[in-house]
Amino acid sequence: MAAFPQQARAGIEPYIGDILAVGYTYCPDGWLSAEGQILSIQQYSALFSLVGFAYGGNGSTSFGLPDLRGRAAMGQGSGNGLTPRSQGQTLGSENQTLTADQIPFHTHAVNANNLDGDLPGPGGKLLAAAPPSGVGSETIYSDQPADRTMSAAMIASSGQNAPFNVQDPYLVMRYCIATEGLYPPRP
What we know:
InterPro entries: Phage_tail_collar_dom, Phage_tail_collar_dom_sf. This is Tail fiber protein. Residues 17-72 form the Phage tail collar domain. It holds the Pfam family Collar. The protein is mostly beta strands. Among the domains are: 14-69 and 172-187, heat- and protease-stable fragment of the bacteriophage t4 short fibre, domain 3; 110-151, no CATH class. Helices cover 4% and strands 20% of the residues. The protein has 1 helix and 11 strands. It has one helix at 45-51; strands at 19-22, 31-33, 38-40, 62-64, 95-96, 110-116, 126-129, 141-142, 148-150, 164-165, 174-178. It is rod-shaped. It starts with 18 loop residues before the first strand and ends in a 9-residue tail after the last strand. The model has no long low-confidence stretch (mean pLDDT 84).
């Protein structure tokens, strides 16, 4: 069996600024969690020269790391027919609330007939004419075919404007950014 002159390592030497998802609870040596931390430009000058102020900082002595906690990464630029996205831009929310203006135009028809009602309870029945005064005031439904549709203005809007979740299914992992390694060559 041959002896290794150096300690065996998996993987390759990272480029500074590489982002890696790991299945364990910490980032390896030479990597920091991508959690939006503010770092010193002086201490991490090589990394700063690559990411600049795209992820925050004070504009002179500190810069920010990307914050991938609870976020999905998206490529910068724009695909065919898509909105342009800039490096460091954050968008989206976990929940959304639709308003009436965001729902496609539609109507709800209320069918009725002009016969005297003869059934109590609406289950599968149509609204009918009220019976003559004093005769079973609860029998205002009929199972006869509809002969008219009521105006859409007769029906009020409904809903609670409650937010709903819009997240895709996900698996949580730790994202790390390389602070040490090779400086990536420009093309």
